[in-house]
Amino acid sequence: MKSLMILPRLKNIEEVNYDYQFPVGIAYVTSALKNAGFEVECLNLNHIAGKISDILHEKLKNKYEIIATGSIWLGYNILDEIAKSVRHNSEKSIFIVGGSIITSDPEIIKDLNADFGVIGEGEKTAVELFECIKQHKDFKKIKGLVYLEERALKFTEKREYI
User: Are 68 and 3 in contact (CB under 8 A)?
Assistant: First the structure.
């Protein structure tokens, strides 16, 4: 099962940028997924020059089953650009968004056209969701998710803090 974790740009520029504080949340989630045996490729958009849409157009030719990303509220415009590129270039992929943007305002998954939002700490939730997708099982028992059902926002049970 091919999956891609996208670290959004933290500045809205097209140049390579190493001047930022790395968001450890996405690293925790990626590490938890890898420790659970999932093959997760990582793409840090801060380290690649060019337009996000061009970068993702090329990258998403690899046909990932799951594409995940996340951010804080200040990163909404960049997340929106990522979401549009994912849906344009990889419409059959399952698209997951996490981070404080989803935790603070889960309705954002509508705007981002995401399949799932991860609320709160995502390490356990992401592993369980990936496992569920891999085994084609029902995700509704996984704690800490938001999703759309007939355009209505639905929540699973709240996840306890790690």
Answer: yes
Q: Across the chain, where does the E strand assignment appear?
A: 3-7, 40-44, 66-70, 94-98, 116-118, 145-149, 152-155
What's the rounded Cα separation, in Å, for the pair 130 and 113? 19
Contact 10, 17 (CB under 8 A): yes
Q: Are strands 94-98 and 116-118 parallel, antiparallel or unpaired?
A: parallel
* pTM of the model as a whole: 0.95
Task: Determine the Cα–Cα distance for residues 146 and 162; give it in Å rounded to an integer.
Answer: 19
CA-wise closest residue to 4 among 89, 78, 62, 71: 62
What is d(CA 120, CA 117) in angstroms, rounded to the nearest whole number?
10
Residue 28 has pLDDT above 90, yes or no: yes
Residue 18: name the closest of 30, 28, 26, 10 by CA: 10
What is the tens place of the pLDDT at every residue in 77-104? 999 999 999 999 998 999 999 999 999 9
- 66-70, strands of its sheet edge to edge: 40-44, 3-7, 66-70, 94-98, 116-118, 145-149, 152-155
- Residue whose C-alpha is closest to residue 98's, from 47, 28, 10: 28
Question: CA-CA distance, 143 to 127, in Å (whole number)?
Answer: 11
